[in-house]
């Protein structure tokens, strides 16, 4: 059964950094684009960063230059390095299998809803940034 297990997150002061991890099992990880979404308490589900199978990366304008996704195919894991965090980054963060060219353009109704074949989701992890 496909599964994405997230770790990391927590609370940090503005200007700090955190790293999220997401380890996949039950599907061919190296054949899947992967990415990170977030959903704040009053915000829609936002695609923030992702990485394709060939290592091409994407970051939304809201996090460009601060967040970066990387992948380790040996360990079936992706990472989200978040630097220069600010209170607006407070949200639940989800890793997901994606189609990167779709995810970077398409809005989705809610985080955690599987929309296509490889669109598996992690359990979500809270990131809280205090001012």
Give an overview of the whole structure.
- The chain has 131 residues and is mainly beta.
- 3% of the residues lie in helices and 46% in strands.
- The strands form 2 sheets. Strands 2-10-9-4-5-6 form a 6-stranded mixed sheet. Strands 1-3-8-7 form a 4-stranded antiparallel sheet, with no helix packed on it.
- A hairpin with a 4-residue loop joins strand 7 (67-72) and strand 8 (77-82).
- It is globular.
At a glance:
By secondary structure, this protein is mainly β. The protein has one helix spanning 100-103, and strands at 3-8, 10-13, 18-25, 33-39, 46-51, 57-59, 67-72, 77-82, 91-98, 125-130.
Instruction: Estimate the mean pLDDT confidence.
Output: 96
Gap between N and C termini: 41 Å
Radius of gyration, in Å, reads: 13 Å
Q: Show unreliable segments.
A: none
Order of helices and strands: EEEEEEEEEHE
The gross shape turns out to be globular
In which order are the strands of the major sheet placed?
Answer: 2-10-9-4-5-6
The main sheet comes to: 6 strands, mixed
The total of beta strands comes to 10
Tally of helical runs = 1
User: Helix/strand-derived class?
Assistant: mainly beta
SS strand fraction = over 45%
Helix content: under 10%
Task: Provide key terms for this protein.
131 residues, mainly beta, 6-stranded mixed β-sheet, 3% helix, globular
Walk me through the topology.
Layout: E1 3-8, E2 10-13, E3 18-25, E4 33-39, E5 46-51, E6 57-59, E7 67-72, E8 77-82, E9 91-98, H1 100-103, E10 125-130
Parallel strand pairs: 2-10
Antiparallel strand pairs: 1-3, 3-8, 4-5, 4-9, 5-6, 7-8, 9-10
